[in-house]
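[scheduler] slot 2 assigned
[scheduler] job type: sequence-to-structure, two independent chains
[scheduler] chain ordering preserved from manifest
[runner] begin chain α
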Amino acid sequence: MITFAVHGIGKPQRALDPGEDERWITVEQFDALLDVVSRSGARLTFDDGNSSDVEIALPRLIERGLYAEFFPLAGRVGERGYVNRDGLRQLVDAGMHVGSHGWDRFDWRRLDGSFAVRRELDEAPRLLEELSGTPVRRFSLPEGRFDRRVLTHLREAGATRVYANVGSVRGAALVRSRTEIRSDLNPRWAEAVSRKSRRWTGPWMARPRR
């Protein structure tokens, strides 16, 4: 089953980092993507922890009974244009899963030294656990790429699931591939990609609250 990776939706509430606008889609594009997800059973993840995760995506997911995983940047939680603690709690209360995208936008293949490893793979998920009130053991790889050293660090950090970009997964049972949604999103493309993925097994529905 295919997994789509979404970043920002709608009008950004902050200045975007260089190249980030290529991953930002309109509300109309997102609604069209949700139509595809509802029909095909595709999965959804959200990276960076943009405020649009809660303001735009969450109400629409709830309305359609869809489940998604959210991977904020721990070092930017609470900053302008990003989710805050209340937003993280809203995601969890709605039955969504919160994982870690690291501390900041940094390619983990370039991690050097114990401080960098601790900050990205230990401190980031620990902070997100405290803020969201739920265990954080799933990770979304910044830049979507990894090597053997990164996998070793992730296993040592207790990761149970790791998302990477399509084409970077080579026999690593821990890692799941994703297809990134970009600003030139065409719903017909998303529909075609979904059809080529595993046979439909029904929508990825939100888990009931306890």
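[runner] end chain α
[runner] begin chain β
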Amino acid sequence: MSKGKLAKFADMASYPHVFEYPYSAVDNVPFEMRGKWNESFFKNDHPIVLELGCGRGEYTVGLGRLFPDKNFIGVDIKGARMWSGATDSLQADMKNVAFLRTNIEIIDRFFSENEVSEIWLTFSDPQMKKATKRLTSTYFMERYRRFLKPDGIIHLKTDSNFMFTYTRYMIEENSLPVDVMTEDLYYSGMADEILSIKTYYEQQWLDRGLNIKYIKFHLPKEGELHEPDVEIELDEYRSYNRSKRSGLQTSK
């Protein structure tokens, strides 16, 4: 698994279950499978689940193994990382797993109304400087509404206290229904087979003694969404292989 980036991108271009539509291509190439994922690719009518910001694809592949009666699509812009999950699922001949390499800001271009049942957000960058870049912001929630089924489910699993706190305030501000919320997943008794799938970075954060937080909530289609107007303490630690996230102390 030590291939260079160019070799990985060449592999990805040949994989039948990988679709690549970054900003540079999406305007020129129509995505004809929008609204037809079940019919044209998966060849079944099983629910579709997205992992947004899938990284190496550990959750996409892990969930695909646990739930053969659901279809899973990992979405990320970083193809060299995605290669790991794409290769694993191809070698395992998994028919219920696919990968979409694109920018999440345009995710609604690839799915039609009511086409997706659930979204997983696994260790998303908390984007502490700008609310509209956070994957649990109302900016993104409005996009998710365009393709989620009525009362669709969103899972957030994060190491970031900022991301967890911001999402909690967003949920409270908009009275979104919550099924599960915990600030310490692995000591809550809720870490079942699904939630115990560990990504590469998650294991490192656990080794550092960081708590893993989890929220499962629903996103109704009706009602205007509002951003929470709150001050939230920023994360001070450094993520692995990332620069310090911010020097500020609070952020809206």
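[runner] end chain β
[qc] chain β: The longest strand covers residues 148-158.
[scheduler] slot 2 released
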